[in-house]
Specification:
The chain has 235 residues and is an alpha+beta fold. It is built from 6 helices and 3 strands. The protein has 3 domains: 3-63; 89-196, no CATH class; 197-228. It has a 3-stranded antiparallel beta sheet with strand order 1-2-3, with no helix packed on it.
Length: 235
Amino acid sequence: MSDAAQPTAAEVRAAAEAVKTALDRHLAAVERRSGEDDPAVYEAFNQLAAAAEVYDELLYDRYDEVTPFEIPGTEDALPPYTGPEEPNALSVLIRRDYAVAEPQRLLSHAQRIEAAEGEDGPAASGTIHGALGLLFGEFEPDEIASRHKEFGLEEGDSTLWVTAAEEPADPGEWLEAPFEQVDPQSVVCRFDVSAVFDDVDDDDDDEVEDDEVEDDLDTDLDEDEDLEPLDADRR
């Protein structure tokens, strides 16, 4: 970048002040949080992320320096909602990932489903591919999600998007490509579940459990110090 195109020191200073203001707004929104999904906190977070990104770019362009922090999720975040103010129709898009953890358990369930249907012809339950077809043809996705271990499946990441529309889609209109025409700006809300979100909590829980075990052991040792030998009265 040429010297003429570089931001001025005043512009960098103004961007730093904007970050400070955004920090104060974010903290105030968190302190006034009305619930887990408070839109005011979400908006303040996005404003802070945007201000930090501008400051980081100007700082680098002017001084060839970077900030030591990073706001996660800003690149993959959904754009602001611009769909209908009062939606007349909804589409619920769900993706759930599973691993076939116990193939034999899955095959056994598929065989029972096939036996109950009593259909003639080649058995579909002899392969994982066929067993999955039988399983998802027999049970609703929500029931499989709640009973996945019973069916030999291991739950992975999942996401649910609720999108708004002016009018319901025509029957069969989107079935060939159900997710290709999703407008991110029409997403009313989304809910994500992933093991990566649980890792930190699990580590914290493990630390707490370890501390509790150590405390229990220390307590037991202290109590043992006050006990007299079992044979003390027999001497």
